[in-house]
From TrEMBL:
<dbReference type="Pfam" id="PF00646">
    <property type="entry name" value="F-box"/>
</dbReference>
<protein>
    <recommendedName>
        <fullName>F-box domain-containing protein</fullName>
    </recommendedName>
</protein>
<dbReference type="InterPro" id="IPR001810">
    <property type="entry name" value="F-box_dom"/>
</dbReference>
<feature type="domain" description="F-box">
    <location>
        <begin position="41"/>
        <end position="71"/>
    </location>
</feature>
<dbReference type="InterPro" id="IPR036047">
    <property type="entry name" value="F-box-like_dom_sf"/>
</dbReference>
Length: 174
């Protein structure tokens, strides 16, 4: 007899799944009452596009940005996102300059404005292209080697191979 999962409402399931992804804790018992392993991130990307976009629509812009940074190669396929330009890659990976980058709006108002964007790819593109907004959401967090390697894998490199050293660094060699 197949094992049945009690998922509750789809929204509760999606929230529990995303909470477990971002906090790196196993899902709560209310999310799935079974002895099976918790759902993996790949299960999220195997969802139908409508459900996947519905789940992403419940993320706040800052959480969506962090999710996009860690899963950009998969999101590129699922949401049909473009390759990162070398300039955008540098904006995301390199430490910020010593000058103060000011965003003219309070972050609460920026959250409201980004909430009106219906497509998560628009929110991701906006945050990736405006470094001041990106830094406001990211704070002092730095990207780990795996995240940089994932971003590097979807970056359009110059024809002359000018970033060969960066690719070597992200693969573990120096």
């Amino acid at each position: 007899m197949p094992m049945r999962l009690h998922l509750g409402s789809p929204l509760a399931f999606a929230k529990g799944l995303l909470d477990s992804i971002f906090t790196r804790h196993p899902p709560s018992p209310a999310m799935a009452t079974s002895s099976t392993a918790p759902p993996k991130l790949s299960a999220l990307f195997n969802l139908p596009p409508e459900i996947f976009l519905l789940i992403l629509s419940y993320l706040r812009p800052g959480d969506l940005l962090k999710f996009a940074l860690t899963t950009y190669p998969q999101l590129q396929v699922k949401l049909n996102l473009g390759y990162l330009s070398i300039r955008t890659f540098h904006r995301l990976v390199l430490p910020p300059p010593n000058i103060a980058l000011n965003w003219p709006l309070p972050m609460e108002l920026t959250d409201q404005i980004l909430g009106y964007l219906l497509d998560p790819s628009d929110v991701i593109a906006f945050c990736f292209t405006h470094r001041a907004v990106y830094l406001q959401y990211m704070g002092n967090e730095t990207l780990d080697r795996e995240t940089v390697a994932g971003l590097c894998s979807v970056t359009r490199l110059p024809v002359d191979g000018g970033l060969r050293a960066l690719r070597n660094w992200t693969s573990g060699g120096r």
